[in-house]
Amino acid sequence: MKNFTPILLVAVAIGLFYIYISPEWQSVQSLRSEQKEYSDAIVKAKELQAVRDELLTRYNAMSSEDLDRLEKIIPQNANTVRLVRDIATVAAGYGAQIEEVSVNEEAPIVDEEVGLLAAPYRSIALILDVAASYDAFVNLISDLEQSLRLLDISGISFSVDDESAVYSHKVELTTYRLNN
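The structure assignment produced for this chain is given below.
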């Protein structure tokens, strides 16, 4: 009986370890790893807040003229009617005429994994049919190039009417706006 008691106590201790202590130890380990993930997330959130605060400070330090210029470069909303009207006004100054306009706004791309917009902007495709002489058309394209508004010309095609000095030009361009 004397030898049996220590063996029984060791067996009970081993049984307690596997039945109670080991599962609790694993639970504690998973909670520690979860705590580390939360701590990392808090650190990243603080870093992002610091970046946001720094950007907000820089934004607030900008003059209203600079903010207006930024709004012209890439506006908050798509006012395609105003854009086409502005282009038509410039074209009219050179004796060119906008005959037809086609507008196609791209839907925002959403990153499914994160649930956020993949890009901070949307693109708007415009197709303009312009009736103008060659010189007027070159001047119009030059003015579009010099414009504050961000415009990418992706295609130009011409058609010639033998009886007239006015050519028909098709201009495909892309402009952008910020996502709201």
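Interim note for the steering committee: Strands lie at 97-105, 110-111, 116-117, 121-132, 151-159, 167-178. The mean pLDDT is 84.
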